[in-house]
Task: structure prediction
Amino acid sequence: MEQKIQALREEMAQRISQIQSKETLASFWQDFLGKKGSIAGLMKGLGAVPKEDRPAMGKFINDFKVQVEEKYAALSERMEQMELQARNRREAVDITLPGVKRPTGSLHPLTLVKEEMIQVFAGMGFDIFEGPEIEDDDHNFTRLNVPKDHPSRDMQDTFYLDQEWLLRTQTSGGQIRVMDRQKPPIKVLVPGRVFRSDSDATHSPMFHQMEGLVVDKGITLCDLQGMLDRFVQQLFDENVRTRLRPSYFPFTEPSVEVDVSCFECGGKGCSLCKHTGWIEVLGGGVVHPHVLENCGIDPSVYSGIAFGIGIERITMLKYGINNIGLLFENDLRFLEQFKEA
Ligand code: DAH
Result:
C-alpha cells in the first residue's frame, strides 16, 4: 500500500508538471480525487489491509488526500491568475499610443463668407428673412417696379417655369415679402440661392445673394454708404473705403453701384482692380417710392435703402478665386484650404 502511495506521489508530481490549462487540471482532479479516482481506489483497498494496520494506513491515505487537495487548490488558484493575466494582456489599451485622427469636414467657403456677412449686419441690428426659391412673377418683378414687357427684365436671364412661376433671379423679392408682413421700422437681410441662365468663369446658373433692406423715417443714401463702409471694412480690410457710382435698378431711385477701394494695392492700381484702384462689389440705392406703395407703406412718411450682394463675388474677391466653378465642383483639394486649424 505504501509503495502504491509512493508511486502515486511520483505520478502526481509528474502530472502536476504537465498541467497547463483548466482542462488538464480538471482531468487531474478526476484521476486523483474523483469518485473513481486513485484515492478512492486506495480507500477501497483498505479492506484488504490487516485490521490492526488499518487506522494508521487510513490516516496515511487521508494525509495523502489532503496533500493532493491542497496541490489542486493551489494549482486552481494559479490557473485563475494566469487566465486573468492573459485576459488583461489581451484587452490592454496602451494609452500612450497616439490616437487615430478621424477626418473632419469643414464649412464651405460660401457658407463661411455668408456667416461672416450675417455677423457684420447682425451687429448693426439686422434680422434675417428667407424667401422661396420658386417665386411668382409678382414678387420677383412686378411689385419691384418691373412691369411685364419692361426692358429691364432683360437684365436677368430668367428660368421661367410657366407664365406665372419662375426660379427667383434675385433675393430682392424678399423685400416685398418682408414689407407685406411687417411695417417700418424694418432692418432685414435676405440671404438665398438665385438662378439665371448664365454661365462663364464668373457666372453660374445658380448663385447666392444677400439682400438688405432698411425702411424707416428719414433713411437716406448716407445710411447705405455708412453701413456698407462698415461691411467692407470688416470683410476685406479696415482701411478700405467705398465709392458710389450712379447706376440703374428698377426698384431703387437713385440707384448706385458700390465700389470698394482696392484692398490688394491700396488704390495704387494692380491687376485685381484692373489698374483703377476700385473694385465693384454690389448694387443698391434708395427704395423706389413705387415699391413702398406696392407694399402699403407711405413714401411721404417713410423712406428706405436696399442693397444686393453677390456672395460668390465677395468670396472670390476675398480669397483670390478666379473661377466660380471651383466653388461648386466640391474638389476636396480646393475645399480643404478653407479648413480652420
Ligand atoms: N437684385 C439686384 C441684382 O440681382 C441687386 C440689387 C441692386 C439689389 C440694388 C437691391 C438693390 O436691393 O437695391 O442685380
In short: The CA atoms of residues 329 and 335 lie 9 Å apart. The chain has two domains: 2-90, 109-338. The first helix runs from residue 2 to 18. The pocket of 3,4-dihydroxyphenylalanine is lined by residues 170, 172, 211, 249, 251-252, 283-285, 306-308 (CB under 6 Å).
